[in-house]
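re: that complex we talked abt at group meeting.

here r the seqs, copy pasted straight from the sheet so there may be weird spacing, ignore it
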Amino acid sequence: MTATELATTELQRHFERTIEHDQRIEPRDWMPEGYRKTMIRQISQHAHSEIIGMQPEGHWITRAPSLRRKAILLAKVQDEAGHGLYLYSAAETLGAERTDLTDRLISGAQKYSSIFNYPALTFADVGVIGWLVDGAAICNQVPLCRSSYGPYARAMIRICKEESFHQRQGFELLLTMMRGTSAQRDMVQEATNRWWWPALMMFGPPDADSPNTAQSMAWKVKRHTNDELRQRFVDMSVPQADALGVTLPDPWLAWNAERGHYDFGELDWAEFKQVLAGNGPCNADRIAHRRAARDNGAWVREAAAAYAAKHAEGQGR
Amino acid sequence: MTQDSQGESPVRAGWPLYEVFVRGKRGLNHVHVGSLHAADDQMAVRHARDLYTRRNEGVSIWVVRAAHIVATSPDERDPFFAPSGDKVYRHPTFYAIPDGVPHM
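got the structure back, here u go
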């Protein structure tokens, strides 16, 4: 073994001990290339999801039924932007470039959560997105607050605190509609029918088809498997649906006393793969909108940079 | 900044990175909360307010260009910190005091 190899082995051992002791890896620590790549991919795709996630509900801001709902929705969509920015910052601590990441989103080189490729057809969808989509996101994200990568874990703590408002405002919106007319109740049921299965897909492929899970669990960047989290979400959602008075669109959904969990039907994984491959209802729209936002904002960024340069010159810096 | 000297367009290279520190309330220290990009110092303060204090998380914000921060080496076993490692007598628990002695 050469001296360099010996040094790398020692660094590797130190890295593994840090993770074993449930301590955090921090930006300038030595880490295996695979860990760095995995973290950059996971964090930036999470950031992209937050940014694209502004769109389905963002379209409803100008059409919200009251000033109260408009203010709430505006605050929620602004939070999603904030979450994207916390996460891009965390990815940058690993050596990634911000502009490179945002370009990769637009070129399709990096993915975002498949859920945001579905449309929000009515205002009830805004409520169901808060209840189920943000609910599933919370389920996924709470364990990430203990991710082994420090900056990611810290970003997740902030995000989870804010996400709780997102879910509650959605549920309250739906409760209000359920107390309204029968047409409003139908809207809530239809939106629930639309979003239930895609929300379950947010946890990713079944464990048997998730080749990266074992390594991610060993690195403690993932704390539970996809199927564990999906089951937890189903168990949480059933009593919420009862409280709301809607029916979850799954004839196989039933309490299993032996397992202590709800059984539920098979997901349409062919649909999941199609949406991931870019063939969902809104994939092209989402990216086109993002590209337009980047291109239309270019002159603002240029002007700000020119102003800063001129100002710095004036101060003789 | 360096991107200008390399002849890249400032937009392509992006705005410089700032680190953000927030004082949660009077009586507490400023604490590092994250980072952001901004064209200049004033924009950095405004972005920091919008990004890190949307829910009254702060009464005061500091921003500093990340490039201006000087830090110790990342290794926690750095000999830089060795001088304090072997001075157990700096801690109160080093001294044995009989149980009966009050207020100590």
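couple things i noticed - Residues 253 and 264 of chain A are 4 Å apart (CA to CA). Chain A touches chain B through 32 residues (CB under 8 Å).
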